[in-house]
Design a protein that fits this description.
146 residues; mainly alpha; two-stranded antiparallel ribbon; 64% helix; elongated
Length: 146
């Protein structure tokens, strides 16, 4: 019996790309709720896991590198086609990571201020949730226009 990890990673990537991308853009889900936690709200852990499933092989296994669009292999490009074309794949993943980090930093900052500055904490949390809302609304608008 021969173990063939490359096809397994590509199958995983293809499934994750179908789940995570819509028209080359990261799909946070309806109202930022694609990744839902126990109470049906957004789960930063699940969002991070989805990103990690795509980014870890690309950073740890040279054959799956995505940092140079000209060197992305055809089977990798095919597996990640939901993220866009060869030149779009790295940019799509980095946009998703930047959005995730921007929102998470704001939410962590808000959590840290809850006891000392509840008004400021609330404002930061509302702003972060507004960003998620705006991302979801932009996706819904784009879907209606397509």
């Amino acid at each position: 019996m021969q173990i063939r990890p490359r096809p397994h990673v590509l199958e995983l990537w293809q499934a994750m790309a179908r789940h995570c991308f819509d028209g080359g853009e990261w799909d946070w889900g309806e109202r930022g709720g694609r990744s839902s936690g126990e109470r049906g709200g957004r789960s930063s852990v699940t969002d991070a896991e989805r990103l990690l499933c795509l980014l870890y092989p690309a950073t740890e296994i040279p054959a799956f590198r995505l940092d140079d669009p000209d060197s992305i292999e055809k089977d990798v490009q095919q597996a990640l086609q939901q993220a866009g074309g060869r030149a779009d794949i790295p940019a799509s993943l980095m946009r998703a990571m930047a959005e995730f980090l921007h929102i998470e930093v704001a939410l962590r900052r808000a959590r840290g201020l809850v006891d000392e500055q509840p008004g400021r904490a609330c404002a930061l949390a509302v702003a972060a949730l507004g960003q998620l809302d705006a991302l979801a609304l932009a996706r819904e608008t784009a879907d209606r226009g397509a």
